[in-house]
Amino acid sequence: MPKEMSPLLKSLEDFRVRLIKETGYSSEDLSYVPEINFRKKQSGPLELDGFPVFRFSYPGTLPLYDSYDKEYQGLIRRMYLEATFNQYNFKSIEFRFERAAIVIEHHFKDASIRDLDNRNRKYLIDAVRATGLIPDDNAQILTLFEEANLTKRDPYIDVFVLERDNFIRFLKWRSKKRNDVDDEIIFSDVDINSIKEIVKKENNSNLVSGDSNPYWD
User: Fold this and answer.
1) Widest CA span of the chain, in angstroms?
2) InterPro entries given for it (predicted)?
3) How far, in Å, CA of 126 to CA of 2, rounded?
């Protein structure tokens, strides 16, 4: 291969990885690599009543649909992707639900009327899909269940991923544990400001590498 082709191929690869990170998607042969390394990653799923369940917890509330511009939506998508990958050590997890259920629980501090269909749950579903825990998010593979609960702490979101066949068993287990929903929550060290810093550094790095690319000289 000619020497001058090497920088071009590297630039193309950098561009491909950047597209994956910006869109929040990952193909089956490429796992997302988080930029933030959370020290409390879990090594495997929870065992609830004899069946495996992955639990992801996120502080705050989901953004509304179309409430931000495209650039800020990209930051939010990246934030949930980073937070999701920082809650488990997916390098050591070889696990996939061929037919899955995702349970999304919104925890609010008050009982004000809220329309859950206005919340952009796509960020969460895409992040779970990127982990490889589910092969796709179409209706043949994925069942989605969503509800809201009250909490005494600041608002947060819980996402549970499990085999669809265990969905009813999970709901029964969860109803018994309803008073304990605030227990044992682990949030990763990811927020919108940390994502802004990551994107800023990446953009600066891309500018430097582009200016010094001998292929374009």
Assistant:
1) 67
2) RusA-like_sf
3) 39
Residue 116 pLDDT > 70, yes or no?
Answer: no
Residues 6 or more apart in contact with residue 122 via CB below 8 angstroms: none
Query: Does residue 13 surpass a pLDDT of 60?
Result: no
Range scoring the smallest mean pLDDT among 20-34, 65-79, 122-136, 200-214? 20-34
Those residues with Cβ within 8 angstroms of residue 49's Cβ, 6 or more apart along the chain or in another chain: 169, 170, 173
Residue type for position 168: I
- What is the pTM for the complete model shown? 0.76
User: How deeply is 27 buried, as exposed, middle or buried, from its count of CB atoms within 10 A (0-12, 13-18, 19+)?
Assistant: exposed
Burial 66-86 (b: 16+ CB within 10 A, else e): eeeeeeebbbbbbbbbbbbbb
195 vs 99, more confident: 99
In angstroms, the CA 21 to CA 33 distance is: 9
